[in-house]
## 1
Amino acid sequence: MNAPIPNNNGKPALSIVGGFVRTEKPTVDGWGIPESLLDIGSESARYPLNVLPGVVGAAVREVVEIVKCPPALAANSALSVLAVAGQGIANVQPNIRIKPSPLSLYLLSIGESGERKTTADDFFSGVLDMWAHQKQQEIEPDLIKGRADVVAWKAEIEGIKDSIKQAARKGQDNRENRERLAFAEATQPKPIYAPNMVSEDTTPQSVAFDLVHEWPSVGILSSEAGVVFGGHGMKADNITGNLATLNKLWEGGTLSVKRRGEGGSFNVRDVRLSMGLAIQPSIIRDFYEINGEKARGSGFAARFLLAFPASTKGNRIETIEEISQQHPKKALNLFYAKLHEVLEQQYANAKNGKLENLPILKLSSDAKDVWLEYLNSAEIELRAGGDMADYSDLASKTANNAARIAGLFHLFNGGDVLDTISGNTMEAATMLAGWHLYEARRFFSEIAVPTDISNAIKLDAWIIDYCRTHYTDNISRRDLQRLAPNKVRNGINLDKALDELADANRVQVRTEGRKSIIDINPALLGG
């Protein structure tokens, strides 16, 4: 049996992912080694960039080389685009007893501003807009004719209704007019759908409307995901319904949307939604601290492939050769060509406004073995003392996400919808899903911690960002009380947070005259 993750120590396939944690930075200028504020380690595992297969992996590695961003951010950008395109091609069914799953993905990248996530996005998502624009131009004559047919049809309907009214006033027989009206209603022109595949600032309900009335395959792609997690749709009086809507769309399920005003109520079916979002740590922490019970209890959090990678700031050194010549983008050009091919397949499937009867990707015998071992590994880790014992909600969707990733890898690396997914493809997908699962576990462990630790984590992140931004290695207590996050400015909370940081060798507090100065461990600043 092929194992999804190389395993030489007898542990279940999934749990070995948690072992890829970076080593601490060495002692600097007499400081002790900075310790994690969390028992499981606050450093991100190294992203398994080498497992990304074929044209997809080559394109991601090329973007990392060009942009010098964290590999996980570039990979998430690529995967979100793969999902938006591939979700209109096929479904995947690893378990014959469970209904097929869409190839849709929800991806969330967490990082401070300046990590070059937007730059990485531009190399991938821009192709979707370009293709959609070209397709709209290509079918413009059909769109013009379609709009004219609708105008003429509406005018015909109104004319018949006027005839009925006039005949009724005169007491004349309306049988012929009623027959004309019934025939006209039955011959309503079919709408012409034009691809409009990328949405940014929107609510779940408006996305559902666009999926039904504009194009049935959409991606919410935003480098400012506060519009999703901090917008009106996630306020207390809206969040439950909107989480349910997003969950249902991830599943490719059907739902009924009740609304007033233009467009009215409508039913949603045979549509697909993916999301590729980036957000700052403070915003997503605030969201989950307020809405965590609903988001995790509903399974919303578990649907996301989350990445919270270490920053590359301070290490993005350019050479004279790099800034003096264009990168050939050989791998990216191959990726773009394949993406156009897949998008054309989606257009053929979706041009009637629905993604009905999509083919189902099946697993080869080897792929079934790999997927089953991953599924069972995740289940084993739910036992008392297991890595996922306290995170069963997060582990519940990981095997499903692995199958979706495998389906996308299959389609974008030469596989046909009639071919079975190979064991190697599934192995790559399970390694990636496992990495994201442990990232989610690490992130949520930072939220579900005692208040003192949570405050220390917030203060630690803020101080490091402040020092890097202001090119300093210290800050006064007075400035902390003025500028630090509100939750840690209070004297008692600030004292406790500083004590936690000092105990972890992350800061030192000293007195300079009447001032209290907080020095930062140089290892945390790349010093």
Note: The radius of gyration is 27 Å.
## 2
Amino acid sequence: MEYNFNDIELKWQQRWRDEKTYKVEIDKNRPKYYVLDMFPYPSGAGLHVGHPLGYIASDIYSRYKRLCGFNVLHPMGYDAYGLPAEQYAIQTGQHPAVTTEKNIARYREQLDRIGFCFDWNREVRTCEPGYYKWTQWAFCQMFQSYYDNDLQKAQPIAKLAERFAKNGTKGLNAACSKELSFTAEEWNAFSEKEQQQTLMNYRIAYLGETMVNWCPELGTVLANDEVVNGVSERGGFPVEQKLMRQWCLRVSAYAQRLLDGLETIDWSDSIKETQKNWIGRSEGTEAQFKVVANNNPATQDGLEFTIFTTRADTMFGVTFMVLAPESKYVQMVTTTEKQAEVEAYLAACKRKTERDRQAAHEVTGVFTGAYAVNPITGENIPIWVSEYVLAGYGTGAIMAVPAHDSRDWAFAKHFNLPIIPLIEGNYDLNEGSFDAKEGVMKNSANSEINLNGLQVKESIAAMKKYVTEKGIGRVKVNYRLRDAIFSRQRYWGEPFPIYYKDDMPYTLPTESLPLELPEVSDFKPTKDGQPPLGHATRWAWDEKNCKVVEKALIDNKTVFPLELCTMPGFAGSSAY
């Protein structure tokens, strides 16, 4: 007899709906079990094969645990904010909410036909105000917190302000963008704006100048996975590197906790190793290199910059320095004669993402015309700019030791720069660098310190001690993990619960959340380059009455402008 799957499946699916078979109530007599899927983004194309591939596995497991006596919560929802709906809105003029609703209906129909055991009473849509109220709430909590390195957890920013009022920065060990030093007297003499600017240096959610993937055609910042071969994945538009003021999350403060946590979870060793490499912990030394004065006025005032190295023992072999193209120091050290050449190189680098630069094997760079002083040898060494140095790791400046680093060696050979061997052994520096982490030191002595004859580990310890005692640098732990860029110049996303007073951000009161997306006349950026929310006429915050009002009422006394950027797509998906 033929299996009439249409009638049979529709019959049982209807019965499951009528009897609310998969609805979950609180039952303290049964053990709880929670099965969570990654919610799909509702695109117009409907489900793709990758969706049921994962959902079928979790569905089987949910049914198994239910049969084992567990009270199983297995919800489904939609990661509903994102660029595709906004681009469709730009092309057709149709509001993203309309197309998102239509796409969700299509997804629901397909998911029901497959027969999953989801509890649809717990459905989540990240674009609904009732949901993103809590995304906004979480952002406010991060904005009002800093990370205490001694306690290894977040603390209220108000506690930090109280500490500054009593002790300044004395004894402070907190995650920050820049090391600051001031007394209680200086803090108390700061204006409110100066105090807010100082606290921004410590907030977990903070405004910072950072390099981003900027797509002029789309008018927004793109994540690395939204850029393919230097163009946007959606539309194929050129993407360039640009320094922008962005909301960031200080996830780097949690790097050590993330590493420690890997030891407590049941993951495979290979995945753990991948995570460790991604977090990238390295112990090393920061050292100061002073720039030799030249015809650039910015180098006249004893300009110096900091480098981070895990191999302090190799400082006798530093023969040149390299700055990342994005480093602010490039403009500050470049001589008049080299200005045009450097500018042309920087323009070329802007067209490449960090991922492209890391994968590239071609050696490129330009000499700035400037020199820095090797603090160990006292010799003047040339300062170059090259795309193989990234601004986000370390300080965006490196000391190059071509004898014992393969990328430095390739650069030195290409530009005919000196190469000084520091480790004894039978190796040919014409063939490549000797990247040894063990061995006996040579060519590493001056009138104050002698590393010759020491093993590498002994030499590293001796050099760390020396630079610390001489005030040349300090011992430091660094991480590859970056702070997350949390701003998008888009309409279809969670509004930031932020308004600006004297150009400084303040959070909306918790009881005023959610701050809902306003209506706009156009989903493109404004003519003067503002994000799409710049088109909204009703987008200002009345601080006195705690409500959104017309922008025309802004007086910078009681009514202030609201943030024009929205949160990225991963804001809502991170929250569920």
Note: The radius of gyration is 28 Å.
## 3
Amino acid sequence: MFDLLIHGGQVHDGGGGPARRAAVAINGERIAAVGDLAGAAARTTLSAAGCVVCPGFIDVHSHSDTFILIEPTAPSKIYQGVTTEVVGNCGASTAPRQGAYKMPTDWREKNYPGTWSSVAEYRALLDQVQPALNIALLIGHNSVRAGVIGYDARVATADEVRAMGALLDRALAEGGAGLSTGLIYTPGLYSTPEEVRALAEVAARHGKIYTSHMRSEGDQLLEALDETLGIGRATGVRVQVSHLKTAGRRNWGKLEAALEKIRAAQAAGVRVAADRYPYTASCTDLDVILPEWAAGDGREAVLACLREAATRQKLRAELAGSTDWDTIMVGSLAHPDLAPYRGQMLTEIAAALGLEPVEAALHLLDVDELRPSAIFFGMSEVNLWRILAEPWVMVGSDASIRALTGPLAVDFPHPRAFGTFPRLLRAALDGHTVPLPEMIRKMTSLPADQFQLKGRGRLAVGAYADLVVFDPQTIRDRATFAEPRQYAEGLNHVIVNGRLTLRDGAFTGARAGRFLD
């Protein structure tokens, strides 16, 4: 007798081939049988008539490191069919925590069920809270760099690079999935390519991946790609280009050159791939608009720049003509006096305050003490679908988990936190992008192979039973930029490590995820 039997569905195994009508049986945490299982008995039987049955989706670009400790049910991801998240992206990871390293503000201001410093301690706490999905943790370069030399705006010494390498080596040995960089953020933006290459060599020795939010995704996109691909060539490390894009209208024409660089590197033996989300707006902290000279030396130093008359004037003059203010929507704002401005375009906020857009941006950063997030509308719809059509581009939401209630229901997120995967499934089903079998591959076996998540990403006998059952007629995202906190529709069942986590569209209470190393 099987523990769980799913019958009557169209099975996609994650490999990109056509679907077949088959039943899927599960024993414990593994898939036990796939095929004609007529007459088989099971403790629980689910009908998938008219539905797609496929491997659970892998979100390769997430920032849920700490939020999963607060809301282990991970509702905004489970309701998309996500069964595994790769966290620690863009150079910021929740571990290791040592020296002067401070977690990002939105993490730091939350209350947690325990404390941790090392990767080993983090994974122990994660096991204690019992997450609903699987977690793989990249080790952030910014976390490591801050832990060794703080936030100083300078080049690291050779001894400091060796110390960073030792810290990274320990973190990877304790289960880290690879190295990530966020080279537009402090303190990583002060690093040299040589520093990053030295750390990528450590990841390569462990057989782990190197992912990069590159130094530029716009004006210097091609040069940033050269650096990233060069690290792959020099070290042999697997390379992941995070959220591949051409940011800013003046850079939209660079896409073909960027794709050719990646294809040429692949042809030369570099193991490089990329990820992307299905929106033409990005989301990050509003303070990324600040120039490098004002962005370093820690939070108090940045606030001092904003509040000192001479530097405020210098910032105003430098930023006034260099930013497309009408493409920025303000997202989360923590200060209660600023709450009415959440979800508004910066130009609208500026008009309400009687300020120029540049001064309004500086005002928000000052009053809210660098906590504002922003959504930047600067990408091409045509380029978005061209990127997603590449066979080596997988899916990453670039979003932390959120919820409709509790401590993760108070900010104003990008809709990708609730809608990424159903949005792409709907696009595939409606013929707007690659066919459904290929889209499922981009969400399952492709990321499992790139991130070496053994036993994941395929619907096959012996694989872990991470599965999704969805209705192709009704699957769709509902989250919008105006109302982002809306769960998707059409997800019938989600199974994680053999446990029925979402049944008939409702959370069962099961939390069967684990730390993956």
Note: The mean pLDDT is 96.
